[in-house]
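Thread: Newbie trying to understand structure tokens

Hi all, I'm a second-year student working on a class project, and my supervisor (Dr. K.) asked me to get a predicted structure for one chain before our next meeting. I've only ever worked with sequences, so writing a 3D structure as a token string is new to me. If someone could post the tokens and maybe explain what I'm looking at, I'd be very grateful. Here's the chain:
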Amino acid sequence: MRAARLALLQSGPDSVRVEKLARQLKVTKGSFYWHFKDRNEILEALLSEWEEETAILTAEALASCDAEQGLRGLLETVKKAVVLSEHGEAPSDAAMFAWASMSEEVARRVNQVERKRLHFFTQLTGRPDRAELAYYAYLGFITRRRRVPAAAAGFPLLAEMLFDLLTGRQALRKTKSNSRKKRHDTTA
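---
Reply by user tm_fold:
Sure, no problem. This is what the structure looks like when written as tokens:
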């Protein structure tokens, strides 16, 4: 699966070929077929694994007693997954989004997962506008990271900003700060 994830991420679905993967793994095609009956099965496994990852992560976050704690845990997990996916250790959003741009069926399934993700963020925050904006910021990060690998170093800051956006914390801090400033201005 790791080799298939990397092939998909680095070169797209056309590079997920039994012969190529077997050669890369230094195994016979026969031993490869022991695990997967054909190329379509491994492609389906890649897509299903990615779909299941979202379901597992959102279920874990929603199971948390506190929405903010669940969101913080999710963002920490995503930080790790972003790095792991670049090494083929986890499913890659970047690979799936690129694949979806080439396949109507994959696009349909990716769109379903995105609807679930947005619904999840809306459940946590009660704010569909913030959920959508946070998701767009994440998508921008994923897209840029593929072109500029050094951008990965900025994900912890992005995760913190997404947390603030989704929870309204930053806005609340600014509002309190502005209220104090206005009171100070009127009393001076």
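A couple of things are worth pointing out once you decode it. The chain has a mean pLDDT of 85. Residues 39-63 form the longest helix (25 residues). Feel free to ask follow-ups in this thread.
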